[in-house]
Amino acid sequence: MATTVTLVNSSAKSSSSLLHFAVALVLSFSLASCDKPSGHERSPTPLVQNLVSTLEDEVRELPNERIAWSTFWKLCWDKTPDANAYELQTLTSEGSSGRVQRQSENCFRIEAATGENKKSEGLLNRQLQLALQSSQLAYRVRAVLDNGRVGEWSPSVSVGATTHVNP
Amino acid sequence: MKQSPAIWRRRFANNLFFVPLLALLLLFGFIVQPRKGAAETGAASFIDPTAAIQCGPPNNDCKFGASVYIAPFATIKAGARSATGAADFITIGNDSNVQDNTLIDASAGNQPISIGEKVIIAHGATVLGGAKIGTTGTCPPGVPNPCPSFVGFNAEIAQDAVVEKYAMVSPLARVGRGVTIRSTRKVLPGKNVTTQAEADGNEKTVLMVPADLKFMNEVIHVNVALAHGYAAMAARDASSVRGINYNPKTDLNPTPRLPTIAGRQQAIPDNPNRVIGDARSANPLRSNKRNSAFAFSQARMLSMRADEGTPFMIGLIGTLDSRVTFHALEHCKLMLGSGNYGRSSIMHGGTSFNKITSTGNNFSLGENAVFFNSKAGANAVVGTMSLVEGCDLTAAREMRVVPPFTVRACAPDNTYRDYPVEWRRP
Fold first, then answer.
1. Per-residue pLDDT at A147
2. What does pLDDT average to over chain B?
3. What's the pLDDT at B426?
4. How many Cβ pairs within 8 Å bridge chains A and B?
5. What percentage of chain B carries pLDDT values higher than 70?
6. Predicted ipTM?
């Protein structure tokens, strides 16, 4: 998939704007390669479908009108025919190690925020914590098939985000 | 079972390829780095040539472990040596990283600084004399020791403060003098923790969650790979890790690429800034009287580090103050219109918005501000020492301007909430 980029110079006041436009044009064309998959697997089949991420809150009452709470981020996807497992890979704001974790279930759940505060404050700082998680951590999924074959990676989904991705 | 000669021939041919490759890796990737500025450095560690390492006479000594990465324009000041001398005044343990434009300053109070194993000091962070990070405390059950600890973008660890193992300090947060962030605690973004009661309470810090450990482990892995990659590159050709140049070959990014400046791919080792890998910028290389764009022609301690594999696109940089960091992700993309960047500001991609962190033209990022994993349209302004994370500032007109000293955190539906940054960087 090619990517369209518009790089527009800030001033456009002088004759240099023409040069900048040309540079921007060159960069725009060169960016077309950006979306090409970087992995080694270029297998066309199969892609996990229908990724849905949700948030689940668990709240526990404490003495003195306080609560302890946790928010779990859950990612599920449709079972892929012929898949005998799934692999998940973490992507972070500092890159990805390329390591994968394998599981047989078609859902993954991880705790993304937590707190303990007065009951009247609700889930204090939940949004702040989830925004931080969604900035720093995401997952993508692929199916593991017979003969060691693997499907293509799904689009990545940020931890803390609630989305529905149907690639 | 007897195997055919063809199989043996193939195995022999494979060995001819892999054995020398292994030997080269051992030779280049795992050699002990020479002492730089009298910092004793462990195997496969890398100190970027632009890092200012003020260790050794007349300063105190420093000792860095194995697989340590010290990124462009980091400053490590061991402080003036006393009459008796002081060995290992600043220590950095194995697998730790000190990222771009950070300051580790033991001259503040002339107290030693201990940074343990698997410690992440993120872009722009400051650690002052007497601080200990990742050397005390405990790892929780099931988490191997040493376990990671983290200091976020433009955060500050004040004199004699402690961040224990398996503790985190979020971006633009501060840990006050003498305060300890205990294992399992995380300081929230923008908070200023000035007392131990605040550090142990639930208003400014929260318990860490498993997602935090995942994040830290990945960051450690990436930076160890970078340390090895840059060390191998430097061993082959010392000039290749200077100025405008290639990214290292790593398992994150097997293809070294050159930056593209004004439409031309080029290596310029003597450039005073560090532009690494497939970064593409519209700015001209040399300053031009008719054009104030000077991003690459003047020494600005600019770190534009696309070393994790995918290109990022920078429109014309109008004004650029010193110590600005651009960092790209492995999977694309930083796409920026024309912009102005304040001192020690950080432009950092994340995983939201289809992995594209973008800005429109005439974007302005204030001093010490962080634009992280977000999207902005034309004329957006992020004030001094503010943090924008996970936000689409194009969604509503009132979102376009982020006031100074503000943490703007957005929910998945882009509803936002502003939190104060509770301290001021001098």
1. 83
2. 88
3. 85
4. 212
5. 86
6. 0.82
Pick from A8, A97, A161: which is nearest to B361 by CB? Answer: A8
Q: Which of B331, B347, B371, B422 to mutate to test the interface with A (most CBs of A within 10 A)?
A: B331
Distance CA B76, CA B91 (A): 11
A115 and chain B: CB distance < 8 Å anywhere? yes
Q: Across the interface, do B214 and A115 touch by the CB < 8 Å criterion?
A: no
CB contact under 8 A, B372 and A9: no
Q: Which two tokens stand for residue B213?
A: 């450990």
The pLDDT of residue B309 = 53
Least confident of A38-52, B129-143, B358-372: A38-52
Asked if A130 lies within 8 A of B291 by C-beta distance, the reply is no
Q: How many CB atoms lie within 10 A of CB A36?
A: 12
Separation between Cα atoms, residue B392 and residue A7, nearest integer Å: 19
DSSP conformation letters of B135-177: SSS-PPTTSPSS--EEE-TT-EE-TT-EE-TT-EE-TT-EE-T
- Which residues touch B334 (CB under 8 Å, ≥6 apart)? B312, B313, B314, B326, B328, B347, B349, B356, B357, B358
Q: Is B221 in Cβ contact with A134 (below 8 Å)? A: no
Within 8 A by CB and 6+ apart from B346, the residues are B123, B124, B153, B154, B324, B325, B327, B369, B370, B371, B372
Q: What is the pTM of this model?
A: 0.85
pLDDT over 70 (residue B192): yes
